[in-house]
Amino acid sequence: MASGDDDDPIIQEIDVYLARSLVEKLYLFQYPVRPATMSYNNATHLTARIKPKQQKVELEVAMNTMSPNYCRSKGEQIALNVDGTTAEDTNVYSTKMMDKQAFSSIQATTNTSRYAAAVFRKGELHLTPLQGILQMRPSFTYLDKADTKHREREAANEAGDSSQDEAEEDVKQITVRFSRPESEQARQRRIQSYEFLQKKQAEEPWVHLHYHGLKDGRSEHERQYLYCQAMDTTENTELVKTSREYLSMLMPPLAEEKVVKPTGPSNVLSMAQLRTLPLGDQVKTLMKNVKVMPFANLMGLLASGTDSTAVLRCIQQVALLVQGNWVVKSDVLYPKNTCSSHSGVPAEVLCRGRDFVMWRFTLERSLMRKEVAAIIKLPPEDVKDFLEQMSVPRVNRGWEFLLPTDQDFVRKHPDVAQRQHMLWLGIQSKLEKVFNFSKDDFVPKKDPQMDPVHVSGDERVKAARENARETHGVLQRELDARRLKGSRPPGEVRVKQEPVSDSEEPMDTSGSLTNGSLNGHPAATSPAADAHNGHASAHAFTPELQEFVQNTFRKHHVLCLSEVKRLFNLHLASLPSGHSVYGHVTDRMLTEAILQSQCKQILVPFPPQSGSTADEQKVFGLWESGETFDKHRQVLFEIFMKNYRVRRNVIQSRLTQDLGDAVTKTDVDRLLKECCMSLGGMWYLKGTVRS
């Protein structure tokens, strides 16, 4: 140190004073979304309030509505959305225009022991410790109020419509239950929960403040307290510390910073803290909190560049594959020597019950809570807990698995899917012994959303046999046709007079409809055609017929069978004379062509008194066209499988529930225009009602 004094001479000595007058009242406000050259010093501050314990501040600042940069129409529209048309004392914007902006604070740091405000005057440095550092950011709570107003208006309109068009709801029985005494362990978990902390924070009252501008006389008076007021006393006039001690006080060791932790629940871990853990612990922590997750989402939460193969090894240690998605294992949620917080049931019993629920979801999309409870024989609270972890309740459909089947993962990782399938077979055999049931007791229900993750060998053999049987039938019919042709004299046309069955009914009730009959040519022009008319093969429809069906449904999206037949007749009439590529077309051939053209039959529950014919009640819709909009149509078709008429708000809420908040009004308008028609305030699928 002494040798360096000559090279680093002392230029000036400054006395440092510690000011304590504002030690518990001084806050530093930062505005991170506003450049320093555009401060709010000259803005009019309307209100200010603070919650001292939480160090939460809210400010309201007036906006210059006369500025050329202010959009008056937008301001009036926002005020209208928030307050409506009524003039009330509780309105946010009394001038019917957005004339103010709110700011809300967040803590920039929870440890301010190393921060102080300093003022320099006449060779003296005065320091005042900071109580808090707050970042003031714009608050958009007015959007929440506008949303609430919108929901209230929709609820009022819906209530008015339902009172006119719908009957009153049936009276439902209410079961009253008394809660059990809370255990100490449950109480500790409740106290540490995020919901409890939010409630405690909301209980702290606001303290209203008066704002004084930078040049206000009161502000100038308060700034004097930034200077030490006891400079004449002899207390602590000198710093009796060595150089090392002084440096240690200025820059304490990093270990001391670990003592101060953010205020929050003990079970909450930030993403920055999470990524400091080993990969296995990261995966376990994420799955324990999320419980059900696609593999792609898991990779998105981990740090970029993480090896997917290593993640696959880790995920199989803590989760099981259900419908292509990963569900956390039961023993991770319920470790040994623990018990249920609801009923006190041991962890081993809880794991068996939850494994049964997971296994059932590998077979079908939806479960009924009563059926599950009757088998695993656990308290209703625990059964509901299992279902809420991996499914959502649906009206009249029980509990549906939370996520759609992830076929992409199964296709990319068939070895993992096969290994998980074998693991589930082992779990199934254990469950059969514990709960005394057979796998035949649970035949998977056919569900259009339930794509099979694994096809067993027995199912493949069965499908091969059915294909062989169908092929044999086609060959046999061709052989019969050849025999009939060989047994007739040349040029003779033999017409069979037997009635045609319902499934083989021609498209026109007056007789078989062929292209030749529409263009002035005989319906049967050869023995082969005659044999086809007499004993039609409904499966041998032509590629031209399927192309017609595909083009028709890409244009109309929803059609009943009678409408398809009408359009087909018009198409045949427009063809040139002698054009007979379609041959003899029956209802069955037409139906099969529709079903093999990415379409599905929509089983609309028509009322008995609807007056619709059988063909009008056979409704088909375009299920897949390769567009992202296919999902919207599929949700709409599922809605109409429950009721033949619905309201617009039901369709919109179901789309939002299944596809997320990205569904816009434009999407709903397009969907209704393509597939539906309106009558009497209700919406119907096209062709299902006579306008």
From TrEMBL:
Q: Which InterPro entries match?
A: RNA_pol_III_Rpc5, RPC5_C
- Could you give a single Gene Ontology term from the biological process aspect? tRNA transcription by RNA polymerase III
- One Pfam family, short name please? RPC5
Compositional bias annotation for Polar residues: 509-518
Give the region (Disordered) as residue ranges: 148-185, 465-535
Q: Where does the UniProt annotation place the signal sequence?
A: none
Q: Where is the composition biased (Basic and acidic residues)?
A: 465-483
Q: Which domain of life is it from?
A: Eukaryota
- Which cellular component terms (GO) are annotated to the entry? RNA polymerase III complex
Domain DNA-directed RNA polymerase III subunit RPC5 C-terminal stretches: 444-691
Name assigned to this protein: DNA-directed RNA polymerase III subunit RPC5 C-terminal domain-containing protein
